[in-house]
Here is the input.
Amino acid sequence: MQKSKPDKLIVYGRQPVIEALKSGVKIYDLWLAKNLEGKAVRQIVNLAKRKEIAIQSVTKDEIQKLIGPVVHQGAAVRAETGRLLSDKKFDELLASGRNPVFLILDQIQDPHNLGAVLRTADITGVDAVVSTEKGSAELNAVTAKTSAGAMFHVPMYRTEKLQTVLEKLQAASVKIYAMLPAAEDTIYNADYSGGTAVIIGSEDTVYARICWLTAI
Here is the structure.
């Protein structure tokens, strides 16, 4: 069952903070170190003013105490984790007739890898990234930092059973491709007309059970 509300987390770094402010996710707190200068800082201030979000002016050490031994660049926000789709919203996307593109992650466990995947998904216009609630990397500050803030823009759908989602996609005539080592075909040969889903991740779980996947 999809969670009804996103979790909260503290995100640090100027670009992730900018993207959080630009994305429309709910911002609960915004901290900015005193005497900061630069284009990114001005952008944070302007976005905060536009959205009527109060800026808490603090020292860099105070931010460090808040988030731990990381490079925070003098900026941090407490925000919702991102654009999490409910079961209803996911079903609406599937039935929208828009020929959506889904990226399905089978137990990607490193938040750095998840962040890199979300950054690519954002650039390439993926409609939703699907992952399991258990055994997958969390949407946390590391993911936000590695994704350069893309985590706040890419719709995410988390499910208890990936098998159920794949069967639902198949029933909706969505073409499903699996990224496999040493596959003969490449992503450039795939047919992306109509709805499409691409799976990456653990070869010893989903791939062994579903015979109708096509490798790319």
